[in-house]
Amino acid sequence: MTFFDSDLVRKEMTDIQDLQEEVYGSVFNFPQMDNESKAEHIELLQELLEKQRILYTRMSLSDDPAAKKMKENIEQSAVMMGMPKDVNMAAVFANMDKMIDVMKQQVDNTSSE
Q: Would you list the domain boundaries of the chain?
């Protein structure tokens, strides 16, 4: 069985795709959303990031050539988006966590005003 034949991996990939569609489908409406909708959107972002982090970790631990290739493709995509060639994906995920925390804080501050 290859990495991508696993029912768990296939389910996680489907979940990631569904979350991406939901998040990206409303990302341009974010500034106009009310605070409750913004908080929900941020929760979806956080869930998406965690699922991506877990899948990336699984690919990193796998010996399957297809998983290694997909991990390599992710790293190459990060470089194409301006990340350093030897990008540390753990640092990328940590930075994304910080950005989400800032977004949450901004929504919380706006809610309490």
A: 3-111
Burial 35-61 (b: 16+ CB within 10 A, else e): eeebbebbeebbebbebbbebbebbee
Helices (H), the chain: 7-26, 35-61, 65-80, 89-111
Enter the pTM of the model. Answer: 0.89
Q: What is the pLDDT of residues 41-89, one digit of tens each?
A: 999 999 999 999 999 999 999 999 999 999 999 999 888 988 888 888 9
Backbone angles phi and psi of 64, in degrees to 5 = -65, 130
